Amino acid sequence: METNATTPAAEAAPQPSVLERTLDLSVLIADLDKDIEQRLRRMSKNLRMPGFRPGKVPFNIVRQQHGRDAYVDALNEALEKSFGEAVKARQLRVAGSPRIDPKKTASETQLEFTAVFEVYPEITITDLKDIEIERPTLDIGAAELENTLNVLRKQRVSHAPVERAAAKGDRVTIDFLGKKNGEPFPGSEARDYPVTLGEDMMLADFENAVLGLKAGETKTFELTFPADYHVTDLVGQTVTFEVTVKQVDEVILPEIDAGFAKSLGIADGDVDKMRAEIESNLKREVKGRLKNRVKNQVMDALLKAHPIALPKTLVEAEIERLMHHARLDMEQRSGRKLKDFPVRREWFVDQAKRRISLGLVLSEIVKVNALYAKPEQTRAVVDENAQSYEHPEEIVSWYYAQPQRLAEIEGVVIEDNVVEWALASARVVDKPVVFDELMGRRA
Asked: Residue 71 maps to which CATH number?
């Protein structure tokens, strides 16, 4: 067998982490034998075995049958104790579980081992006075309220067929067939396909070709797929489409009246009450979106100000957790078990590193600055969350019924405390944002 002399560097073992530590451990053989003996004696008192009364199994048989298990349990417990005492004496904060390997030794009185493990990084909280954080701002006024009302109206439109040519904003029902080099290609054909012109449901060149056509008219045209098209095999390719318009419908927006108010849950159809409720909900949603943006800005700034080495064991555990949740999510969406769902480790590496980094940095900031959740802060968040429900008092009781639910709220409060601390420490620049952009809508 030949050896490829040009590849050893590529196959070299990964470099040890800067957080990796090594400790020598030892277990006295006499103490281990004593523990094993005691374990077997306790076991023999109640051991059942065919041919013997309970507790009357000869001890040599007990040792023969269960000696190995007793040895493993005794050794593991001794090593755990030895490791715990060693790290405590050195004041080490262990991240993850150690790897313990036996050492070759000539000693007749003790067994020797090497423990390899990682520790948590030392984090020094940085002064944020030179860090700039953008704080998005937006005041809700009449224009934003009307914008939201129009969005709600568009969600409740009706349609009426018209005989005129299709215009922007109309819904057209079409048949189409695309051909590449004279042959249909995947996804190039549909029948009775509804398209609202101007909403970018189709490529702009496709929609523009349909504009001006009446029901019953057919048009053939060429289309070149853009560079950012999601099907890579079609990028830059020119194809021919034949489109037949089967129906043109005019989109009719509902009037802002009692019927519209009732459709939004206002039982008595009071339009003023509807507007007030929409405005209240809108302000709450905008506040939440602005808060999340500020939080993301702060978290990015904290990560940039506190670069730290990460324990590989924690990162790997987080990657596994994220992969597991991705599989569960796909199973819930599909409604069936997905044994072979393709989840790749590399998809989650960056996310896992960010989550671990933030967890360690935030934990240190909270500890140093005593930013723990106060009961009154927790209650304020619970009350705020409950306001969007018909019976807020039931939601409040639901949160306080289980400590785990309340712990999630406390986690939110702690993050809010960190954000407030960072904003008070850093240079904050207010930056107005556009309403449609904040809400994820096209202007």
From this structure: 3.30.70.1050
